[in-house]
Amino acid sequence: MSGYDQGKGSDVLDAEDRARFEQLVLPHLDAAFNLARWLLRRRADSEDVAQEAMLRAYRFFRGFHGGDARAWLLQIVRNACYTWLEKNRPVELMTEFDEELHPQPSTSPEALAIAGDNRERLTRALETLPPRFREVLVLRELEGCSYKEIASITAIPIGTVMSALARARQRLHRALTQSSPQEASREL
Amino acid sequence: MSCDFTTTLLHGYLDDELDAARAAEFERHLECCHECTAALGAEESLRSSLQRSGLYENAPVELRKKIRAGLDAATASSAGMRIPAWRLIAVAATVLLLAGVSWFSWSRAGKDSASTAPFTVAEIIDAHVRSLQPGHLTDVTSTDQHTVKPWFNGRLAFVPPVKDFADEGFTLVGGRLDVLGGQNVAALVYSRRKHIINVFVLPTKEPDTAIHPPGLRQGYQWRHWRRQGMEYCAISDVSDSDLYELAQLMYQ
Fold first, then answer.
1. What is the ipTM of this complex?
2. Same domain for B69 and B153?
3. How many domains does chain B have?
4. What is the pLDDT of residues B99-128, one digit of tens each?
5. Best of B34, B67, B106 to disrupt the A interface by mutation (most A CBs within 10 Å)?
6. Do the chains contact at B51 and A142, CB–CB below 8 Å?
7. Is residue A170 within 8 Å of residue A188, measured between CB atoms?
């Protein structure tokens, strides 16, 4: 893992550290869980990884020198998610390179007929995107992160966040169109 | 897709991340490019479905408990070595107190001081989302504060302060009546670039507060404060720095 100062993980953490951590980092637990949930897609896995990442953040808390605590935490969560994916579902990380060769999993028309339910439809479409597209959308639209924050969390150069989002949105439109032609949001 | 702008710049505009010159350039371009106008509309509707469909998943309570237990273990194991018992008790008491204080302030921020505000976050978000439905935004539409303010006269038992901040980048769009926590409230509507900000105003007997730390849920941010007998809650999908700027302008 790189990109942020982890400090010395062996530092002894005292009550003061604990109180600061509770105040600065713990309030972002929802953000941590939400990101893990969308990267890993399964709640149980997300809980495990979010927990591990939070405790890891605590161990390295002395390496946090102020600034944006949410971005700092989300960076750790994101790295933990990718490490977990590499180990447990490496195929998912590969799909983004040759996705054109493999058709996206399509949902049955019956399921979609019932799914006038927007939430269901959007969830399915988001989950078909490769993780690297999914994460920028989640950070921007659900977490409300600025481009600068997205850059520091995902390690994408700030100058390319805009085009990454452009491509991710294009993919999402396409996924929605494929899964539900009658609600095609835009011809691409 | 033929227009160069739709590929990237449009997204910077949508996300409010262009500098003023480039945003103005794009707006000029929008006036003559139907393709970009349509594409921007499609992106805006995709954004609003993403933000309104309840996709955000909060951490389960069980996870929170497990993490606290983990933090306890990581802190206590290091504190237990050669510290006299009385100090350990003092430390534990401090941890409890600080944890209590920060939990309290955290839960206040998270629930928008549900204990002190006469409405809940869910109600504010619902009211904001409802206002964005076609035709629901304003009862009186005017950028003139001298039109909007008198409109509330006789419709509410109080007179909300109404000011336009167009020079600072927050244009008054209008006002409407709304209901929060069973009370009639004034909703002032501002626009920041293309984003809508609702500011709910209602009278209160509670003392003034500073502008509380931001809350975020489902992609919406809010800021809450009390000032001179009025309770304010501003909510929007704009960035918190924008929201805070408006809150400060209104606070003066």
1. 0.80
2. no
3. 3
4. 766 665 555 444 444 346 778 888 898 899
5. B67
6. yes
7. yes
